[in-house]
């Protein structure tokens, strides 16, 4: 049996990701040891944080070294098991990485009991949904009637966060790139308004849509759009910093807010967070998210590409703004 894999070969600091940043290899699958399972990767997920891991600038997780298999989570089928926790045919989730047949320790994977919701464990019921949930409940702390603005609103985290804010009784405005994404925000995710930053003046749109100011800003983008939003925050606003996807084409030192003085004038709070800070509460959060999904209160949109060879290009889709919802890639049936 052959294990196909992509290794990290370059660090895309201050530039977009390129094909040369990855090296494709094939190898014979080795024997598994006691407590291990051999998996067939079925679906893998993509997130903007992966570029930070490639650049080796994020210190909240272990670095990916040149020559390592590229990190990422996936849904997989157990092919062979030397563990009493898993049997052949089980569907599991874990850090399966960019490879076709990973061998993992039994403690590194989790059984998915409801296989009909399997891919949701890479999105709404996985790190994406948990990031949205904790960013809303722990950092943003919405109150009914709050005006909320979400940047990167059509992505996996932004779209789920917006729907949780709606459940909380807020007026939700999403900022996204392109008319099609803005249409999805309104028609599929139930946002109250949408701003197309590619064709609209963000400042003018915020002035019109937020006459009383922004009570909660949930930022996934950073850069110029964050600057524009900070100019419109209300008194005692809460600003949740979830991501900085705008920096993918710039040097690490060449980005950041300019209107941060408004945090002083408006007595606002800006706070960054990472989902791992709240994982002790993940089971409770996942139960709540699952309930909302089953009740039809959260629509989980997935953008599923296909083909192992398309893994690098699928990651690039995030930074080119091509994804609609959670970005996934199907490797096997």
Structure description:
The protein is α/β, with parallel strands linked by helices and 333 residues long. It has two domains: 153 residues, Medium-chain alcohol dehydrogenases, catalytic domain (Quinone Oxidoreductase, Chain A, domain 1); 150 residues, NAD(P)-binding Rossmann-like Domain (Rossmann fold), CATH 3.40.50. 26% of the residues lie in helices and 26% in strands. It has nine helices and 15 strands. The strands form three sheets. Strands 3, 4, 5, 6, 7, 14 and 15 form a seven-stranded mixed sheet that branches. Helix 2 packs across helix 3 and helix 2 packs across helix 8.
Give the structural class: alpha/beta
Instruction: State the name of the first-level CATH class of the largest domain.
Output: Alpha Beta
The domain tally reads 2
**CATH topology-level fold name of the largest domain:** Quinone Oxidoreductase, Chain A, domain 1
CATH architecture label of the largest domain: Alpha-Beta Complex
Rounded mean pLDDT score: 94
Keywords:
333 residues, alpha/beta, Quinone Oxidoreductase, Chain A, domain 1, 7-stranded mixed beta sheet, 15 strands
């Amino acid at each position: 049996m052959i294990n196909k894999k992509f290794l990290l070969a370059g660090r895309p600091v201050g530039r977009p990701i390129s094909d040369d940043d990855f090296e494709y290899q094939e190898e014979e699958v080795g024997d598994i040891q006691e407590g291990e399972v051999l998996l067939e990767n079925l679906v893998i997920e993509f997130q903007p944080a992966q570029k930070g891991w490639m650049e080796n600038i994020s210190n909240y997780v272990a670095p990916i070294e040149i020559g390592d298999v590229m990190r990422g989570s996936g849904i997989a089928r157990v092919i062979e098991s030397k563990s009493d926790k898993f049997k052949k045919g089980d569907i599991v989730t874990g850090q399966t990485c960019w490879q076709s047949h990973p061998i993992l320790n039994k403690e590194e994977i989790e059984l998915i009991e409801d296989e009909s919701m399997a891919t949701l464990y890479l999105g709404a019921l996985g790190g994406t949904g948990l990031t949205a949930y904790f960013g809303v409940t722990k950092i943003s702390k919405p109150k009914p009637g709050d005006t909320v603005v979400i940047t990167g609103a059509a992505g996996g985290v932004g779209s789920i966060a917006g729907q949780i804010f709606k459940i909380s009784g807020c007026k939700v405005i999403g900022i996204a790139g392109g008319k099609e994404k803005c249409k999805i925000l309104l028609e599929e995710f139930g946002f109250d308004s949408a701003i197309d930053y590619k064709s609209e003046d963000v400042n003018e749109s915020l002035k019109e849509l937020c006459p009383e100011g922004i009570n909660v800003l949930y930022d996934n983008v950073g850069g110029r759009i964050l600057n524009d939003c900070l100019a419109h925050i209300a008194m005692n606003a809460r600003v949740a910093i979830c991501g900085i996807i705008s920096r993918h084409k710039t040097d690490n030192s060449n980005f950041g807010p300019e209107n941060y003085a408004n945090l002083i004038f408006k007595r606002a709070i800006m706070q960054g967070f990472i989902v791992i800070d709240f994982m002790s509460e993940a089971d409770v959060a996942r139960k709540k998210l699952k309930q909302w999904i089953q009740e039809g209160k959260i629509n989980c949109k997935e953008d599923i590409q296909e083909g192992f060879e398309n893994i690098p290009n699928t990651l690039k889709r995030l930074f080119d703004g091509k994804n609609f919802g959670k970005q996934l890639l199907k490797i096997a049936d």
